[in-house]
Amino acid sequence: MNKTILVISDSTGETANQVLDAVKVHFDITDVDIKKFSKINKKEQIDEILDDIKGDILIFSTIVDRELLDYLIEKTEMNESIYLVDVLSYPMLISSKFFGQQPRFDVGLNRKVDQEYLEKMEALEFAVKYDDCKDKFGILKADIILIGVSRTSKTPLSLNLAFKNYKVCNIPILPEVEVPSELYKVDNKKIIGLIIDSDKLNNIREDRMAKIGLQLGYSDDFRIEKELEYAKKIMNKIGCKIINVTDKTIDETSNEIISYIDKYK
């Protein structure tokens, strides 16, 4: 009699594959056909799979959709030559009792988590690559562009937003340096201008200079006023949103930026 092992999942089937691999090492398996079916989400698909295969069938299933799983169970109970291993139900039952919670049973939840992780890592790499205008072409690729004078929290904001899956580049504004022309080529709704009160900026810069043991005009009042005036001029020319970060935490500013950006998506 022919023997066939089926892996059936409404997601990628990777979990069922791993369980099958763990089981196979304990048996001398020869002349067994193994077929794998992923993203099965209709009863008709289950019918087609089972109708096409003859002989004894062993199924490893990670179907999460309750209605679809019940249908598969019903089909297997009607046929004595079909054996079903429901990989998730028993672990879910015991875990539910342990945590005192009902499982979410979201189809493809693992895949979704994995994808979100990859997107977050990609956004973080983007933020590092295009930090402080290391590469001006990041302006054309970014979801959000932060501009402002030094010490307006551009880098920590970029990383904070990256953790929320936004690709961010930041551009310092200095009176002596012409801003990249790319800033005038993108949608100004993507650009956020960061400003700060001059006294607060002076304190931040003086503290910074003390820590690294330098004395420069970096924290000079006249210099700061000149930088802020120039930055506001550029921001107004671009027509971007301007946020005063003086009394805001990184999270507060980040949330304000996201609220604004998402409004124009």
UniProtKB/TrEMBL annotation:
Protein name: Putative pyruvate, phosphate dikinase regulatory protein
Residues that bind ADP: 148-155
Presence of the UniProt keyword Kinase in the record: yes
HAMAP family for the chain: PDRP
Taxonomy, superkingdom: Bacteria
EC class (word): transferase
Entry's family note: Belongs to the pyruvate, phosphate/water dikinase regulatory protein family. PDRP subfamily.
Protein EC: 2.7.11.32, 2.7.4.27
Coiled-coil residues: none
Catalytic activity: N(tele)-phospho-L-histidyl/L-threonyl-[pyruvate, phosphate dikinase] + ADP = N(tele)-phospho-L-histidyl/O-phospho-L-threonyl-[pyruvate, phosphate dikinase] + AMP + H(+); N(tele)-phospho-L-histidyl/O-phospho-L-threonyl-[pyruvate, phosphate dikinase] + phosphate + H(+) = N(tele)-phospho-L-histidyl/L-threonyl-[pyruvate, phosphate dikinase] + diphosphate
Example GO molecular function: protein serine/threonine kinase activity
Record PANTHER family: PYRUVATE, PHOSPHATE DIKINASE REGULATORY PROTEIN 1, CHLOROPLASTIC
Job of this protein: Bifunctional serine/threonine kinase and phosphorylase involved in the regulation of the pyruvate, phosphate dikinase (PPDK) by catalyzing its phosphorylation/dephosphorylation.
One Pfam entry name: Kinase-PPPase
InterPro entries assigned: Kinase-pyrophosphorylase, PPDK_reg
Keywords from the UniProt entry: Kinase, Nucleotide-binding, Pyruvate, Serine/threonine-protein kinase, Transferase
